[in-house]
Design goal:
Largest sheet: none
Distance between the termini: 6 Å
Helix content: over 70%
Number of strands: 0
Shape: elongated
Strand content: under 5%
Structural class: mainly alpha
Low-confidence stretches: none
Number of helices: 4
């Protein structure tokens, strides 16, 4: 834990802060398909970087923890992607964005942080 998690605490928080900031672009009233694609591509890129720079390190000490965190992040990106391209969601409406996107990012952040910091290895 001291060798892998502690040195990356700042990086973990930064990942989620940047993730929510990028997702916030989906609230734009002038949201075009090009902007949607760019935001989703950026979220996928941030997730891939998080995987390469942190999540894979968890696998060296606990493969179940690695899979669990990886699945949580992947599920979050999938959920945001589906909601972004679903015409039933008006993401420029703050309440819709909050209940569709922001709440899931917050829940994933809490879950990931709890799993990581409760790790006893």
């Amino acid at each position: 834990k001291d060798l892998i998690i502690e040195p990356h605490k700042e990086y973990i928080h930064k990942f989620f802060s940047e993730f929510i900031e990028e997702a916030g672009h989906l609230k734009d009233y002038q949201l075009t398909d090009t902007i949607k694609i760019n935001v989703i591509d950026s979220l996928k890129s941030k997730s891939a970087s998080f995987r390469r720079n942190f999540i894979v390190l968890l696998g060296s000490v606990d493969q179940e923890l690695e899979r669990d965190i990886l699945n949580s992040i992947d599920n979050l990106v999938d959920l945001i992607t589906r909601a972004t391209f679903d015409a039933n969601y008006n993401l420029s409406d703050a309440a819709v964005f909050d209940s569709t996107i922001e709440i899931h990012i917050s829940q994933t952040r809490i879950y990931v942080l709890a799993r990581i910091f409760k790790y006893e290895g």
